[in-house]
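haha ok so turns out i had the wrong file open the whole time. this is the CORRECT one, sorry everyone. sequence first:
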Amino acid sequence: MKLHNERLYARIPIPLQNALISVYGWQVLRRRSGPDLEAAKRLLEESERYDKTRLREWQDEKLKGLILYAYETVPYYRELMDSLHLRPSDVETVDDLAKLPVLTREDIREQGERLLSTAVKSKSLRRVATSGTTGAPITIFWDRGVEIFNNACMHRFHHLAGIDPREPFATLMGRPTVPLSQTKPPFWRYNAARRQLLLSTLHLRPDNISSYARELKRRRIAVLEAYPSSAYILAKLLKDAGEELRFRIVTLTGEPLLPPTRSFIEKHFQCEIFDAYGAAERTLFAAECERHEGLHIFEEYGVTEILDGDGLRLPHGESGRIVATSLHNRATPLIRYACGDIGTISETPCSCGRSHPLFEDLTTREEDILVLPDGRLLPPLFLLSGYGCITGIRKAQVLQDEPSAIHIKLETDHPLIAAEVAVLMDYLTKRLGNGVKITLERVDEIPLSPLGKFRRVISTVPLPKNNNT
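then structure:
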């Protein structure tokens, strides 16, 4: 639900909330389905059997069309290429991309709508604010084509994981479908369009956890999709409560999946985990297959490069900045976009025989889980979309030394605007509750860690432990 509708949504009966969610679910499904989706799925079924040479030829052809389109319809790229004395015919292959500079998040903020294609109709676009690893939001637009192709790639991911698209599943992510003011079950809502049980992240705490377990068992849910930290919180609370819950498959995305987290979730849900990595900017999609030897980079989705500190392309096996080019978003084409993450493409192909290269290592930033006074454990990603109301923001960092208080540092281009601060405080209060004191501080610079990393959340509050475990 959009922020300005939340108060109204919270006041209507739960059955009507479920109905509204299902209606919205059908609308999304219609936008992302139809003949175009079926054509994209057929392409992905066919291209999965391509060898490396044919896959590269396919990429080159798509890239050639993208560069010409960007030059002709996107003001930023036309001016950039003219300044470099480049014509579209100079950038026709993946190797030719090195002739263009890397696009940064700062570039996107500065250029704004100059990155928006003049060939698209604004009414058909979806505006998306992404926070990235710094917590600082940028705004891009998706067209229907990239939504369709992203959905096709999700179908491929689920096929790799052995998930039947018709089977019911549960989601434990960021959408606040259950009002924070609700104190009794059900702490979930139902999207009939996808047979999807939407579990509330905001209500995960020891005295509520048994109701979650009962509902998941009652519905015989065998598939869970979640953030790694959300799945970890659910598993830990169930373990501490002495509750046993099994899933057949758990799909994880949105955060780095660290080995200890993976092991804990697998052990306590007795499940098979499939990890995926997707950029909200829709430049990159990668996912595990049944062999679990790394994440296959879906090269039909975009072109992925690994660069060193000087901007030079690194060979497979060496770690560097991930830079990716979307092959499908005609609304805001992002060419050689550096998302801020670090990764390594494996020198060794997957034993499954698919030709897509593997990410063998992905490093974003290890985050801390927020511990709230009422016992709730909150994944850090849940706060990030609130920063979009602050203009000129470069970085944002949450500090927590006690459950009842958080302090947020905002690195901005100019002094904070009172009206924007009020919107952000309202957003945070609705998610954290009135029992948490929230303070904001505008700073000129948020320093990196001694290892040169940026952390969105730094919490020194230990996770609660059950005395019996």
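The chain has a mean pLDDT of 88.
again sry for the mixup
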